[in-house]
Design a protein that fits this description.
mainly alpha, 2 domains, two-stranded antiparallel ribbon, 11 helices
């Protein structure tokens, strides 16, 4: 399960309203607005608007149950995940503004590649690819994997410093295999998670990152985090019991037992 918070802002409120207008066209506008306010932790929509105009607006903890309860009281049966998806779009926009190099696949777009005609990608090709991959990061297609990543990251122990061996590409494989749910219990993961979306979720959750430059001077797509490697290894073995690390751990445990009791028993 994940916890989703977003900054209280006019742009964020407008984004959520637009998303839910698209998803819930049959719900009266005033009911949608009041339900959104409840889901953001306000007693009324007027209170939400007042918070937006305040000098220090603060943050909102998204509550799908309060959103759907208000709509149910007015005759509408709505799934809470709609509010989470709309709020996740706001969160992704906020992270993308903080990290202008972040794309769907990580930091930047990697090295130039050969095109179908055999020529190498030039600056215009790379720039077009970057704009496209950047747009995908904040699209509808990134939302579910962003929330799945948040659910996974909620179980990760942070450390004071960024640690070696905490690469984002490894973590994204763990996250996309994580069986998790929305706060109200509806199934969320497993689902595909892109490297850049995992990074976005980690930044949103408050983790720090370290970026890298490869030997040719291009941004490395992957980053490292201030996360406990033993915690990550435990989670990998739990979430991917048939994975390489889980198999290696079982093998080491078997070998340890064998060295202790090479003949099968310590007693005769």
């Amino acid at each position: 399960m994940f916890a989703l918070t977003i900054p209280v802002s006019a742009d964020g409120l407008d984004t959520i309203k637009a998303e839910l207008t698209r998803e819930l066209p049959d719900v009266k506008s005033s009911h949608r607005c009041e339900a959104i306010a409840r889901g953001l932790g306000f007693r009324t929509y007027a209170a939400a608007l007042a918070a937006v105009k305040a000098e220090t607006p603060g943050t909102a903890h998204i509550r799908g149950d309060l959103f759907t309860t208000y709509l149910a009281d007015h005759g509408f049966d709505v799934r809470p995940k709609l509010l989470y998806h709309a709020a996740a779009k706001v969160a992704l926009h906020e992270v993308s503004k903080r990290m202008p190099k972040l794309t769907m696949w990580g930091i930047g777009v990697g090295r130039p590649r050969r095109k179908e005609d055999g020529s190498w990608e030039d600056f215009r090709d790379m720039n077009a690819k970057f704009r496209q991959d950047r747009a995908v990061l904040i699209s509808d297609g990134a939302v579910k994997s962003f929330l799945t990543s948040l659910a996974f990251l909620a179980r990760v122990t942070p450390t004071k410093t960024i640690r070696k061996g905490t690469g984002s590409y490894w973590l994204k494989h763990i996250a996309e295999n994580y069986a998790c749910a929305y706060p109200e219990g509806e199934k969320l993961g497993p689902t595909y998670v892109a490297n850049g979306v995992l990074i976005a979720a980690a930044l949103h959750a408050g983790f720090k990152i370290k970026t890298y430059i490869d030997e040719m001077g291009y941004d490395d797509l992957n980053v490292s985090f201030n996360m406990s490697k033993p915690c990550l290894e435990d989670l990998d073995c739990e979430i991917r019991p048939d994975g390489v690390r889980a198999q290696d751990r079982r093998h080491r445990e078997q070998m340890k037992r064998y060295r202790q009791y090479p003949y099968g028993s310590a007693a005769f």
